[in-house]
Design a protein that fits this description.
- By secondary structure, this protein is of the alpha+beta class.
- Strands 1-2-9 form a three-stranded mixed beta sheet.
- The protein is globular.
Length: 229
């Protein structure tokens, strides 16, 4: 099932589609759009942001270990982290025993730099695990959090970047951190909105304000998202 949301009448339905059921504002049943995991939605990125639930966040109970990663879902010897490195290599590395990578070349979009060793890179959860917990994942089960932490089905979810830029970002949202490379910032915030849409995660007020302001300076391009939950 494929939806395109560009009219005001659709906003209330899409808000229910994306927002966690327990916290979404009530909408008459006749106005609700039903969408299930696996369904695809397409809409302009600013409209997608408007459709996300806005609420305060809480980190109560968070532990990184509650998101099991990195897993090897297809049991080919390369875990999710290594799969991202292999997929995003500009020049393919040599792959050895236990998916050890030698050589290769990677581009880090966060800081517009190239790196010639996988050891110089981190694989970043675009929306950090702690941020996901704060904005909805605290209510997920163990398998749902594992799927989020190892998501290879949407190329926006995990990204290979320089270790320095990833550690500078840590668990911050776009209200306090954006990539140092200005040329990537529109892509970054668009992908952030897409990732939150995919997992029906909320945004807090300062995060929403920062995203909204940044997106006024970016093309209002459509994003296509396959719902994960």
């Amino acid at each position: 099932m494929h939806f395109t949301r560009t009219t005001v009448a659709a906003f209330s339905a899409l808000a229910v589609l994306i927002a966690p059921a327990a916290t979404a504002h009530a909408v008459p049943a006749a106005d609700r759009t039903i969408a299930d995991p696996g369904d695809t939605v397409t809409l302009p990125v600013r409209d997608a942001l408007k459709s996300l639930l806005i609420r305060d966040e809480s980190r109560t109970g968070y532990e990184r270990s509650k998101f099991r990663h990195w897993t090897d879902a297809d049991r080919d010897g390369c875990n999710a982290r290594m799969e991202v490195l292999l997929e995003e290599a500009v020049n393919a590395p040599e792959q050895g025993l236990n998916c050890t990578l030698t050589g290769g070349l990677w581009y880090s979009a966060y800081d517009d730099a190239y790196f010639d060793s996988a050891r110089k890179l981190d694989v970043d959860h675009l929306v950090p695990l702690a941020e996901a917990w704060d904005s909805g994942a605290s209510g997920w089960n163990t398998k749902e959090r594992e799927a989020y932490a190892n998501d290879l089905h949407d190329t926006r979810a995990l990204i290979a970047v320089s270790a320095g830029s990833n550690r500078s970002k840590s668990d911050q949202d776009p209200s306090t951190w954006v990539p140092p490379y200005e040329g990537y910032r529109c892509r970054y915030v668009s992908d952030w909105v897409a990732d939150k849409t995919r997992y029906r995660l909320a945004v807090d007020p300062s995060e929403e304000a920062a995203l909204s302001e940044m997106l006024t300076r970016c093309p209002n391009e459509p994003i296509t998202v396959t719902l994960a939950r």
